[in-house]
Specification:
The protein is of the alpha+beta class and 287 residues long. It has helices spanning 139-144, 218-235, 248-255, 259-271; strands at 10-19, 22-26, 31-35, 48-55, 61-64, 75-84, 88-92, 99-102, 119-126, 132-136, 157-166, 169-174, 179-183, 196-204, 210-213, 239-240, 275-278, 281-284. It contains four helices and 18 strands. The chain has a five-stranded mixed β-barrel. A hairpin with a 3-residue loop joins strand 6 (75-84) and strand 7. Residues 155-217 form the S1 motif domain. GO terms for molecular function: nucleic acid binding. InterPro entries: CvfB_fam, CvfB_S1_2nd, CvfB_S1_3rd, CvfB_S1_st, CvfB_WH, NA-bd_OB-fold, S1_domain, WH-like_DNA-bd_sf.
Length: 287
């Protein structure tokens, strides 16, 4: 098999000769350059060397003895190291050359593209011109590495990465190995592809997959809402023109919460002795 047809793979070649800038390796029919910058150690003529083949900037086959995290057809979790609008995102596969995940394989909306530091489960694909690109894992691939959740996992906190996203929801693979779905109603905003998120299991399906919510638990949400209202009150010197009689749309615009959530949080503040209401206004209670 020609060396060009083996790009994206590990091969063992023999050192045919040395040069000032590296080594020429051979399979008996073709030679390929292992540049000194890509050699993990010094080698001599006749040595057998395991290398990874990749195309250089000119499309020629080059070799590196610095082994990648994955090869063509193998999947792994890869870090995003750069993003280029109109091009795509670049993933670190463990060699000097980063691999491009093209724009056509990313969400239409740029705001949910992976950011630097996000993690994607992907493999290397080789196109017809023998260039290397990244390819995201599909649902069947994720399913192959997944563990089944049980009823004992209900209501547990989980952390994971988003591996697929859509308007209706996001799909997550958790650190426990669970494959889950986050309905759009269970997220405050749409997470990025590859983003690490924290949530809780709100349902365990018969097939072992889970439904996950990224929303705060009710008690946590109540505490956060109460703190948000109180901070706003303090920013207005202890008086604000909002109360449990305020219009729902006014509350939503000012505090970003429903009237029900606002009333519960306000009730907590009154119960804690921090505020009181007079008419349509709310005031800070003096200590």
């Amino acid at each position: 098999m020609a060396l060009i047809e083996q790009v994206g793979q590990k091969v063992t070649l023999e050192v045919a000769r040395t040069a000032a800038y590296g080594y020429f390796l051979t399979d008996g029919e073709e030679d390929v350059l292992l540049h000194s910058n890509e050699a993990a150690e010094e080698v001599a003529e006749g040595d057998q060397v395991e290398v990874f083949l990749y195309p250089d900037a000119h499309g020629r086959v080059a070799a590196t003895s610095k082994m990648p995290l994955i090869t063509a057809g193998e999947y792994g979790w890869l870090k995003v190291v750069d993003t280029k609008p109109g091009v795509g995102v670049f993933l670190d596969v463990g060699i000097q050359k980063d691999i491009l995940l093209g724009e056509e394989d990313l969400p239409v909306h740029k705001e949910i593209w992976p950011a630097v530091g996000d993690t994607l489960y992907a493999t290397i694909r080789v196109n017809r011109q023998y260039r290397l690109y990244a390819k995201l894992a599909t649902d069947p691939v994720i399913q192959d590495i997944s563990e089944n959740a049980t009823r004992n996992d209900f209501n547990k906190n989980v952390t994971g990465h988003i591996y697929r996203t859509a308007k209706v929801g996001s799909w997550i693979y958790t650190l426990e190995g669970f494959r889950g779905f986050i309905h759009e109603s269970q997220r405050a905003g749409e997470p990025r592809l590859g983003e690490r998120v924290e949530g809780r299991v709100i349902d365990v399906k018969e097939d072992g997959t889970v439904n996950v919510s990224l929303l705060a638990r009710k008690q946590d949400a109540l505490e956060e809402d109460a703190a948000s209202i109180y901070d706003y009150l303090l920013s207005r010197n202890g008086a604000m023109p909002y109360s449990d009689k305020s219009m729902a749309e006014d509350i939503k615009e000012r505090f970003g919460m429903s009237k029900g959530a606002f009333k519960r949080a306000l009730g907590k503040l009154m119960k804690d002795g921090k505020v009181y209401q007079e008419g349509t206004w709310t005031y800070k209670k003096e200590e």
